[in-house]
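Design review, sub-item: ligand-bound model
Attendees: FS, YL, KQ
YL presented the inputs for the iron/sulfur cluster complex:
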Amino acid sequence: MRDRISVSEIYGPVVQGEGAVIGRPTVFVRTGGCDYRCDWCDSPYAVLPRYRDTWVRMGTEEVFAEVRRLSEKPILVTLSGGNPALQPLGGLMERGREEGYTFAVETQGSVAKDWFGGLDNLTLSPKPPSSGMETDWVKLGRCLEAAGERTSKIFKVVIFDDGDYAYAREVAARFPEVPMYLQVGNDHPPGVAPHEVPEPDVSGLLDRYSRLAEKVIADGWNEATVLPQLHVLVWGNKRGV
Ligand code: SF4
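KQ shared the predicted structure:
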Protein backbone atom coordinates (compact mmCIF):
# COMPACT_ATOMS: atom_id res chain seq x y z
CA MET A 1 0.00 0.00 0.00
CA ARG A 2 2.95 2.33 0.61
CA ASP A 3 3.52 2.86 -3.09
CA ARG A 4 -0.02 4.09 -3.61
CA ILE A 5 -0.57 7.75 -4.37
CA SER A 6 -3.22 9.83 -2.62
CA VAL A 7 -4.94 11.68 -5.48
CA SER A 8 -7.33 14.60 -5.07
CA GLU A 9 -7.88 15.19 -8.78
CA ILE A 10 -6.37 14.66 -12.22
CA TYR A 11 -7.41 17.10 -14.93
CA GLY A 12 -6.36 18.74 -18.15
CA PRO A 13 -4.86 19.44 -20.49
CA VAL A 14 -5.01 23.07 -19.42
CA VAL A 15 -2.56 25.91 -19.79
CA GLN A 16 -0.23 26.34 -16.82
CA GLY A 17 -1.14 29.64 -15.21
CA GLU A 18 1.89 30.21 -12.97
CA GLY A 19 5.63 30.07 -12.67
CA ALA A 20 8.47 29.25 -15.04
CA VAL A 21 6.35 27.20 -17.45
CA ILE A 22 3.43 29.67 -17.58
CA GLY A 23 1.45 29.24 -20.79
CA ARG A 24 2.48 25.61 -21.38
CA PRO A 25 -0.20 22.94 -21.90
CA THR A 26 -0.12 20.50 -19.00
CA VAL A 27 -2.06 17.78 -17.20
CA PHE A 28 -2.35 18.31 -13.44
CA VAL A 29 -2.09 15.50 -10.91
CA ARG A 30 -3.17 17.05 -7.61
CA THR A 31 -2.29 14.90 -4.64
CA GLY A 32 -4.24 14.80 -1.38
CA GLY A 33 -2.63 15.71 1.94
CA CYS A 34 -0.36 18.50 3.16
CA ASP A 35 1.95 19.10 6.11
CA TYR A 36 1.11 22.86 6.05
CA ARG A 37 -2.05 24.82 6.86
CA CYS A 38 -1.62 28.14 5.09
CA ASP A 39 -4.18 30.78 6.05
CA TRP A 40 -4.92 31.58 2.41
CA CYS A 41 -4.58 28.08 0.93
CA ASP A 42 -6.28 27.99 -2.47
CA SER A 43 -6.81 24.22 -2.47
CA PRO A 44 -8.19 23.21 0.96
CA TYR A 45 -9.98 20.28 -0.71
CA ALA A 46 -6.49 18.77 -1.21
CA VAL A 47 -5.30 19.60 2.31
CA LEU A 48 -7.90 19.32 5.04
CA PRO A 49 -8.86 15.99 6.62
CA ARG A 50 -12.56 16.73 6.11
CA TYR A 51 -12.01 16.24 2.37
CA ARG A 52 -10.06 12.99 2.79
CA ASP A 53 -12.93 10.84 1.63
CA THR A 54 -12.74 12.60 -1.75
CA TRP A 55 -9.14 11.47 -2.24
CA VAL A 56 -8.45 8.18 -4.02
CA ARG A 57 -5.44 5.96 -3.39
CA MET A 58 -4.17 4.97 -6.81
CA GLY A 59 -1.28 2.89 -8.10
CA THR A 60 1.34 4.32 -10.43
CA GLU A 61 -0.12 2.57 -13.47
CA GLU A 62 -3.63 3.83 -12.68
CA VAL A 63 -2.45 7.44 -12.40
CA PHE A 64 -0.40 7.20 -15.57
CA ALA A 65 -3.28 5.59 -17.47
CA GLU A 66 -5.51 8.55 -16.54
CA VAL A 67 -2.83 11.07 -17.56
CA ARG A 68 -2.42 9.28 -20.88
CA ARG A 69 -6.20 9.09 -21.43
CA LEU A 70 -6.50 12.85 -20.92
CA SER A 71 -3.45 13.92 -22.92
CA GLU A 72 -3.50 11.29 -25.70
CA LYS A 73 0.16 12.09 -26.38
CA PRO A 74 3.21 13.19 -24.35
CA ILE A 75 2.76 16.42 -22.42
CA LEU A 76 4.12 18.20 -19.37
CA VAL A 77 2.63 16.64 -16.21
CA THR A 78 2.39 19.01 -13.23
CA LEU A 79 2.43 17.31 -9.83
CA SER A 80 0.71 19.58 -7.36
CA GLY A 81 -1.20 19.36 -4.10
CA GLY A 82 -1.51 19.47 -1.17
CA ASN A 83 2.16 18.67 -0.89
CA PRO A 84 3.11 16.20 -3.64
CA ALA A 85 6.45 15.61 -1.89
CA LEU A 86 4.52 13.49 0.66
CA GLN A 87 3.68 10.99 -2.10
CA PRO A 88 5.67 8.19 -3.80
CA LEU A 89 5.80 9.76 -7.26
CA GLY A 90 9.18 8.47 -8.49
CA GLY A 91 7.63 5.48 -10.25
CA LEU A 92 5.11 7.65 -12.08
CA MET A 93 7.89 9.86 -13.39
CA GLU A 94 9.95 6.89 -14.55
CA ARG A 95 6.92 5.43 -16.25
CA GLY A 96 5.98 8.67 -17.97
CA ARG A 97 9.46 9.50 -19.10
CA GLU A 98 9.69 6.15 -20.89
CA GLU A 99 6.93 7.48 -23.15
CA GLY A 100 8.20 11.03 -23.58
CA TYR A 101 6.24 12.79 -20.83
CA THR A 102 7.97 15.53 -18.84
CA PHE A 103 7.33 16.39 -15.20
CA ALA A 104 7.10 19.47 -13.03
CA VAL A 105 6.43 19.68 -9.29
CA GLU A 106 5.11 22.50 -7.15
CA THR A 107 5.87 22.11 -3.45
CA GLN A 108 6.54 24.37 -0.49
CA GLY A 109 9.98 22.84 0.10
CA SER A 110 9.38 21.21 3.47
CA VAL A 111 10.15 17.62 2.37
CA ALA A 112 13.00 16.61 0.04
CA LYS A 113 12.63 13.50 -2.09
CA ASP A 114 15.22 11.60 -4.16
CA TRP A 115 12.83 11.67 -7.11
CA PHE A 116 13.22 15.46 -7.38
CA GLY A 117 16.37 14.57 -9.38
CA GLY A 118 14.23 13.08 -12.16
CA LEU A 119 12.10 16.19 -12.63
CA ASP A 120 12.29 18.63 -15.50
CA ASN A 121 11.06 21.56 -13.38
CA LEU A 122 10.97 21.97 -9.63
CA THR A 123 9.01 24.96 -8.34
CA LEU A 124 9.71 25.57 -4.68
CA SER A 125 7.03 27.79 -3.22
CA PRO A 126 8.13 28.58 0.34
CA LYS A 127 5.36 30.28 2.25
CA PRO A 128 5.66 33.93 3.33
CA PRO A 129 4.56 35.33 6.72
CA SER A 130 0.97 36.06 5.59
CA SER A 131 0.45 32.28 5.29
CA GLY A 132 1.00 31.81 9.03
CA MET A 133 3.70 29.21 8.29
CA GLU A 134 7.41 29.29 9.14
CA THR A 135 10.14 28.25 6.74
CA ASP A 136 12.70 25.63 7.72
CA TRP A 137 15.67 26.91 5.70
CA VAL A 138 17.64 23.68 6.11
CA LYS A 139 14.80 21.61 4.64
CA LEU A 140 14.36 24.11 1.81
CA GLY A 141 18.07 23.78 0.99
CA ARG A 142 17.76 19.99 1.04
CA CYS A 143 15.03 20.18 -1.61
CA LEU A 144 17.38 22.11 -3.90
CA GLU A 145 20.15 19.57 -3.28
CA ALA A 146 17.82 16.65 -3.99
CA ALA A 147 16.93 18.16 -7.36
CA GLY A 148 20.58 18.23 -8.41
CA GLU A 149 21.99 19.70 -11.59
CA ARG A 150 19.66 18.23 -14.18
CA THR A 151 16.42 19.66 -12.85
CA SER A 152 15.51 23.27 -13.58
CA LYS A 153 14.66 24.99 -10.28
CA ILE A 154 12.83 28.17 -9.37
CA PHE A 155 11.33 29.82 -6.33
CA LYS A 156 7.80 31.15 -6.48
CA VAL A 157 6.69 33.38 -3.62
CA VAL A 158 3.14 34.64 -3.28
CA ILE A 159 3.01 38.28 -2.22
CA PHE A 160 0.11 39.74 -0.24
CA ASP A 161 1.91 42.52 1.65
CA ASP A 162 5.25 44.18 2.46
CA GLY A 163 6.16 41.45 4.95
CA ASP A 164 5.82 38.86 2.18
CA TYR A 165 7.95 40.99 -0.13
CA ALA A 166 10.71 41.25 2.49
CA TYR A 167 10.51 37.48 2.93
CA ALA A 168 10.94 36.93 -0.82
CA ARG A 169 14.03 39.11 -0.72
CA GLU A 170 15.38 37.00 2.11
CA VAL A 171 14.80 33.78 0.14
CA ALA A 172 16.62 35.31 -2.84
CA ALA A 173 19.50 36.46 -0.63
CA ARG A 174 19.88 32.98 0.89
CA PHE A 175 19.73 31.17 -2.46
CA PRO A 176 20.90 33.70 -5.06
CA GLU A 177 21.57 31.04 -7.70
CA VAL A 178 17.85 30.13 -7.98
CA PRO A 179 15.57 32.34 -10.14
CA MET A 180 12.81 34.09 -8.17
CA TYR A 181 9.23 34.43 -9.42
CA LEU A 182 6.89 36.73 -7.54
CA GLN A 183 3.17 36.25 -7.80
CA VAL A 184 0.35 38.42 -6.52
CA GLY A 185 -1.86 36.61 -4.01
CA ASN A 186 -5.52 35.94 -4.77
CA ASP A 187 -7.57 37.21 -1.81
CA HIS A 188 -10.47 35.13 -0.57
CA PRO A 189 -12.16 34.75 2.82
CA PRO A 190 -10.22 32.56 5.29
CA GLY A 191 -11.22 28.89 5.18
CA VAL A 192 -13.01 29.34 1.86
CA ALA A 193 -11.52 27.86 -1.30
CA PRO A 194 -11.28 30.35 -4.19
CA HIS A 195 -13.49 28.12 -6.34
CA GLU A 196 -16.28 28.66 -3.78
CA VAL A 197 -16.08 32.43 -4.41
CA PRO A 198 -17.99 33.11 -7.62
CA GLU A 199 -15.78 35.82 -9.09
CA PRO A 200 -12.26 36.93 -8.24
CA ASP A 201 -11.58 40.61 -7.66
CA VAL A 202 -9.85 41.05 -11.04
CA SER A 203 -9.36 44.81 -10.82
CA GLY A 204 -7.91 44.37 -7.31
CA LEU A 205 -5.54 41.66 -8.61
CA LEU A 206 -4.38 43.86 -11.48
CA ASP A 207 -3.93 46.81 -9.17
CA ARG A 208 -1.80 44.75 -6.78
CA TYR A 209 0.15 43.36 -9.72
CA SER A 210 1.03 46.84 -10.98
CA ARG A 211 2.05 47.97 -7.49
CA LEU A 212 4.25 44.90 -7.04
CA ALA A 213 5.86 45.40 -10.45
CA GLU A 214 6.54 49.07 -9.65
CA LYS A 215 8.10 48.10 -6.33
CA VAL A 216 10.42 45.57 -7.98
CA ILE A 217 11.48 48.16 -10.57
CA ALA A 218 11.98 50.87 -7.94
CA ASP A 219 14.12 48.47 -5.88
CA GLY A 220 16.25 47.58 -8.91
CA TRP A 221 15.48 43.90 -8.28
CA ASN A 222 16.33 43.08 -11.87
CA GLU A 223 16.70 39.33 -11.38
CA ALA A 224 13.08 38.87 -10.27
CA THR A 225 10.19 37.84 -12.53
CA VAL A 226 6.78 39.30 -11.62
CA LEU A 227 3.77 37.30 -12.73
CA PRO A 228 0.00 37.49 -12.24
CA GLN A 229 -2.03 34.33 -11.68
CA LEU A 230 -2.85 34.02 -15.36
CA HIS A 231 -5.55 31.38 -15.01
CA VAL A 232 -7.44 33.45 -12.39
CA LEU A 233 -7.47 36.49 -14.68
CA VAL A 234 -8.67 34.44 -17.66
CA TRP A 235 -10.96 31.83 -16.09
CA GLY A 236 -11.71 33.22 -12.65
CA ASN A 237 -11.82 30.91 -9.63
CA LYS A 238 -13.17 27.83 -11.43
CA ARG A 239 -11.61 24.50 -10.48
CA GLY A 240 -9.99 22.32 -13.14
CA VAL A 241 -8.81 25.04 -15.55
S1 SF4 B 1 1.46 24.38 1.30
FE1 SF4 B 1 0.11 24.80 -0.44
S2 SF4 B 1 -1.42 23.15 -0.40
FE2 SF4 B 1 -0.40 23.14 1.61
S3 SF4 B 1 -1.72 24.43 2.91
FE3 SF4 B 1 -0.11 25.79 2.03
S4 SF4 B 1 -1.03 26.65 0.16
FE4 SF4 B 1 -2.29 24.86 0.76
